[in-house]
Automatic annotation (TrEMBL):
Secretion signal, residue range per the UniProt entry: 1-25
TM spans (from-to): none
Name of the featured protein: DUF541 domain-containing protein
Record flagged with keyword DNA repair: no
Keywords annotated in UniProt: Signal
Record bears the keyword Zinc: no
Lineage: Bacteria, Pseudomonadati, Pseudomonadota, Alphaproteobacteria, Acetobacterales
A Pfam family per the record: SIMPL
InterPro entries for the chain: 26kDa_periplasmic_antigen (IPR052022), SIMPL/DUF541 (IPR007497)
Any one GO BP annotation for this protein: DNA damage response
């Protein structure tokens, strides 16, 4: 029994020694590895699918109540007119009331509210904007963009384009460094669509027939960036 116990103890000792050597070898291999971080991107361009018109109405009177009454009536008429147009999303936006007292004179109250028109039919948006200008609203700006479904599709295309570059870029970089690719350690994906500042227009007071405003479509860009950490070894 003592002899068997001694043999078993020897086996355990050898196994422990081998385990220690393997661990040391793994540590040595890990210490000789090189971390490479880099980024690649995919970019897709497309014609815009949405046009948004930014309008506002305002009224100025000696009384805050009177200013708001006039503004509310103007906005109500504008919303009623816009609601008759199929395919156009109409939203009444921020509402404000402010006062100004000149050095010599009475306090003036100004009430203001924004309206936003959005839709895929640019001709209808521009035509309605012109009609609303004739009814007392002022056009502040126009901007082109992508609808949600189109943006998601383009983002997927840009993501696929970026990811297809990852492995080739890692292997090419490893080769240039005299190393080879072991694995991709980490991959982070982020998408970005540059905001298009809307075209600022000189506001004109309505009251008479007005031609519809004009706006040329601007190409939209959807970009996806992939940040990668790769492990290289000799």
């Amino acid at each position: 029994m003592k002899r068997l116990f001694g043999v078993a103890a020897s086996v355990v000792a050898v196994a422990s020694c081998l385990s220690t050597q393997i661990a040391r070898a793994a540590d040595n291999n890990a210490s000789s590895n090189t971390e490479l971080t880099f980024s690649v991107s995919g970019e897709v361009r497309s014609a815009p699918t949405l046009l948004t018109a930014h309008l506002f109405a305002q009224a100025q009177r000696l009384s805050a109540v009177d200013a708001q009454k006039i503004l509310n009536a103007t906005i109500a008429d504008a919303m009623k007119m816009a609601s008759k147009q199929a395919g156009i999303d109409v939203k009444a936006g921020s509402y404000s009331i402010s006062d100004y007292t000149p050095e010599h004179g009475h306090t003036q109250w100004t009430a203001r509210q924004n309206i936003k028109l959005s839709g895929k039919d640019a001709v209808s948006i521009l035509d309605l904007s012109g009609k609303l200008q004739s009814h007392g609203l002022m056009l502040e700006g126009l901007d082109w963009s992508l609808d949600a479904k189109t943006r998601d599709t383009l983002t997927q295309q840009a993501r696929t384009q970026a990811l297809s570059k990852v492995k080739a870029q890692a292997e090419e970089s490893a080769k240039a460094l005299g190393l080879h690719l072991i694995r991709l350690e980490k991959v982070d994906i982020s998408s970005f669509q540059p905001e298009q500042p809307y075209e600022m227009l000189q506001a004109r007071v309505g009251g008479s027939a007005m031609e519809a405003p004009q706006s040329s479509p601007e190409s939209q860009v959807v970009k996806v960036t992939v940040n990668v950490k790769a492990i290289l070894a000799p």
